[in-house]
Amino acid sequence: MGKTDSRELLQGNILENLLKMSIPTMLGFVFQSVYDIIDIIWIGRISASAVAGVTIFATIFWLVEVLNEIIGTSSISIISQSYGSGDEERTKLAVEQTFTFKALVAVIASLIIIMILKPLLHFFSSDQEVLKAALDFGYIRIFFLPIMFSSYTVNTALRCLGDAKRPMIFMAIAAVLNIILDPIFMFKTIPFINLPGFNLGVFGAGLATVISISFSFIVGFYILMSGKTKIKPSIKGLFKLNKEIDWKLVTIGLPSGFEVLLRNLSGLVTLKLVSLYGTSAVAAIGIGNRLFGFAFMPLVGFAMGSSAIVGQCLGGHDIKRAKSTVREAVIINVVLMIIISLAALIFPKTIMAIFIDSPDVIEAGIPMLRIVTPGLIASGIFMGLGSVFSGSGHNIPFLISSIIARWGVQVPLLFAIIYLLHLPIAFVWLSYLIAELVELVVIYISYHKGTWESKRV
């Protein structure tokens, strides 16, 4: 294999290319978020303690996402730039190494987190119902971590090759299957149809998730390896390690990985501080996280679509086209986030009541939605501008912005709010909004500095 001229993203209308890449990606993540929201609705039917337990585990589980972030971010720039330059052989090698290296790292991470899970959970809560829910949901998710990472690799590889539709289909399959399996596994009697279920409770929610991800991965892996895509990885190549590619998979995304680590550690600290306001507050932030995750999906879609295009543009030495792509992404992101923010400002009680009927949780959640959701507008600009760093491999600005916003501003502010000023929880929610604005300022400065324009991997 040698060179390929199939680089469609470097030609044609910029907005059309961005939409072609981003809308399927966005829809795929929207499907996933719809599942996440329905999942928390079902768990809310069990108890507020169950919601709190799943929330605490999910926060801890994001620590292992640091590893996926490091390798995944690196792979975006390596695969897209290799493909944009027309080097098919290096593109194939990059895809193979991303599979192998990420799966190996996932196995190691699974072993480590199993050993430290219980002590971490006890750090957040001594409520036995909360701890049991976290463990029931958590162990099976940890066991299937390599499959989860590999499913991410399938989707990332296809997007970097300019194919955003198939990942959307795979994610839709997983979400729909998850939605179907959740009530069957969780409840003694399946809601609405009154047929017998397996009555597995919170464990059933975790089981439904891993089955759905595994099925989606098998379908995606088969298609990627069958030669029906633009690059055909080989099974033989999956059993080899390449020092040059693997080193880049670790180092290029390392700043981004540290950024996610620091963000997640700040999330752990924040969750601990929120827990001082009681289980209802933890349940409220758990619901909020799912809602914000859903609202964030359009941003993720356009960021990933834009990153792949930027990577190919840099591989093809077209800086002007990369900048135009980013500008379009920012405009679209801001419009979408304004619409979502208005809905949260006008209907917060109705939105919270969809998830849980506890008055205390709803009362804690209303100011959370009204205060935090407008920060999504800042996130829209942040994600749009940030796509140049993922596409170029210049990920240090992500790290700097996270350190300043989370550790330099939000965490100290939270300690002051809780321990010095003894303010109500509404001020805790305000710290999230302030952190988002600070993060945007840092990334805006980094974008205009222009270092990313000359960065190649």
UniProtKB/TrEMBL annotation:
Bilayer topology annotation: Multi-pass membrane protein
CDD domains: MATE_NorM_like
InterPro entries: MATE_fam, MdtK-like, Membrane_Transporter-Flippase
Transmembrane segments annotated in the record for this chain: 49-67, 99-117, 137-158, 170-190, 202-224, 265-285, 291-310, 330-356, 368-389, 396-421, 427-447
Keywords from the named record: Cell membrane, Membrane, Transmembrane, Transmembrane helix, Transport
Location of the protein in the cell: Cell membrane
Identification of the protein by name: MATE family efflux transporter
Species for this entry: Clostridium omnivorum
